Amino acid sequence: xxxxxxxxxxxxxxxxxxxxxxxxxxxxxxxxxxxxxxxxxxxxxxxxxxxxxxxxxxxxxxxxxxxxxxxxxxxxxxxxxxxxxxxxxxxxxxxxxxxxxxxxxxxxxxxxxxxxxxxxxxxxxxxxxxxxxxxxxxxxxxxxxxxxxxxxxxxxxxxxxxxxxxxxxxxxxxxxxxxxxxxxxxxxxxxxxxxxxxxxxxxxxxxxxxxxxxxxxxxxxxxxxxxxxxxxxxxxxxxxxxxxxxxxxxxxxxxxxxxxxxxxxxxxxxxxxxxxxxxxxxxxxxxxxxxxxxxxxxxxxxxxxxxxxxxxxxxxxxxxxxxxxxxxxxxxxxxxxx
Amino acid sequence: xxxxxxxxxxxxxxxxxxxxxxxxxxxxxxxxxxxxxxxxxxxxxxxxxxxxxxxxxxxxxxxxxxxxxxxxxxxxxxxxxxxxxxxxxxxxxxxxxxxxxxxxxxxxxxxxxxxxxxxxxxxxxxxxxxxxxxxxxxxxxxxxxxxxxxxxxxxxxxxxxxxxxxxxxxxxxxxxxxxxxxxxxxxxxxxxxxxxxxxxxxxxxxxxxxxxxxxxxxxxxxxxxxxxxxxxxxxxxxxxxxxxxxxxxxxxxxxxxxxxxxxxxxxxxxxxxxxxxxxxxxxxxxxxxxxxxxxxxxxxxxxxxxxxxxxxxxxxxxxxxxxxxxxxxxxxxxxxxx
DNA sequence: GTCTGGCACTCGCACACCATGAGTGCCAGG
DNA sequence: CCTGGCACTCATGGTGTGCGAGTGCCAGAC
Lengths: 338, 338
Description:
The structure is a homodimer. By secondary structure, chain A is α+β, with helices and mostly antiparallel strands. In chain A, 47% of the residues lie in helices and 17% in strands. Chain A has helices at residues 4-20, 26-32, 39-52, 68-78, 86-97, 102-117, 170-184, 192-196, 205-223, 245-257, 259-268, 317-337; strands at 55-56, 65-66, 120-124, 133-142, 145-152, 157-163, 230-233, 275-278, 290-297, 305-312. In chain A, α2 packs across α3 (39-52) and α5 packs across α12. The first copy, chain A, binds a DNA duplex through α2 and α3.
């Protein structure tokens, strides 16, 4: 079991290492933090912490640095979330309020997060599956070719072409449009399939094929993989990573280009609050030397998507968590207003 | 004036340096290329080339490397565009044909370019201003709130909210929708303003305010800055840049995050063919050690947007130019088909 | 039992030194 | 105008060394 003081030592090590980027020794520790004990005592505590796997030394004659396990303990037990200051909060709000549409909200959020945390920011677009339908529109582009436009409560718009098996009259089109909207408008995406099931039956036999085609296109749109888009930014912050450049940064850049990887990354975090995944806790190899801080955000009380940052495991966790949480909160507000 | 052989020497230097990334000396040159003269002669030629500013030596006792000016001469006079091989062309075509919508086309193009050239790829979305209107749709979301949806011939969709000064009836809406489409469908964006000018006059006085509002929103959409979106990829290739990492790569990453910068970059290239901007020819400071190879692409004969790659000035120009040109050609085809 | 000061030990890092050799410029002769 | 020869420069890499930060351990104090 770790005594109170040993935890305090670990906290001091994490804080110093995050600040200086250099392994921290026993003497420096006692000087910068008033632990009330001598370096020798700290050394003993360090030896114990090392035995337990919370810290390690890069070389025999160097100071200690925290391990992933050490950071984990720090995040779980030793550090809170550092709240943003009032001016910071105002700045966030002001910056986000200038957004004109959903794309802009996401773009601004990415910039903001990247600037606040000085790390790589990742923002997922509000997911279709968790939002509700605002409107469905059908346009006849040609006698047997329709365009289906789906508008969500978060302002997102998806469109699909529909090639009809048979020509489809203007009247039938208006009818379908009206029926469709009266059923699904305001409903959650997940409920839509059940709501439109027997819709074809209301139409003439000749039109049923087309109606079915339209419906299946609609349902496809709801589940389609590209529903999960995201935007990243602040990659220039990767240059502040470390000294042993290419080897670390390369796999990270590669991982960041794989949207699938990132989506999985964000998706894994089920926690209602801020989630932190440290180093090897990330499934993807390329991200083994990074930590991911993420949180859900949404227009109502409920999360419709996630956002977060990717940075070195040696990061300011309390500050980053605070920034991520604050941004998520304000983005939620903005989405709710629009 | 530079003799034929001196140009040949320059070509050899560029080729060797691009291949090896190391300054090339006179002896190595005569060994790898059969110039038919001795190293001493080559040295004299090199001295001349250096006087003219085409090459430089990093240190006194090192070989020569091409300067920006040297690359410029190489690109303009000494190198052609290396055409893609047949299998490569087939691969490009196959890869692009799998795309399901415009976003996907752009995304695939970026990946493809990045892989082919092993550099950073930039693809601009087909610009609104140079395309034509396929359809304009108006939806009533609330009595005094409309949504305007604009669909282009390149498959792009833009939507805007319109808050009406007064409630707008269903009949008037249908009327406006019909009149609008009959006037602008199939027309170029640049012609739209003239075509809708006197449209409000056809409506009752009470509706004119709303009609005007809708029209001005439509016109805004046509010129809005965010019409010029773009997508980038292959940033991981930046790690192959050089040995003196952070200092070079940092400003490049920063520049790549500024869409404005990139758009200007692509926009500057007015050439109908492949354009190459080398090193300091790029206005943006951060890109002074990079070259940009870009070209326009379009669904018809006409260019509606640009695409290109950003890489180190030390790049394989003929190959890169060939890849860029080929990809642009096939993307154009794909867009024309859809 | 816990903390402390002392002490010997380890070892990475920075610096200096030197030998090597690739590459150059210049010159005299073909 | 080209070539071979020659003296010179200088970046690079390997070795050696001193320094100092940091450690582990132990004996003694509280």
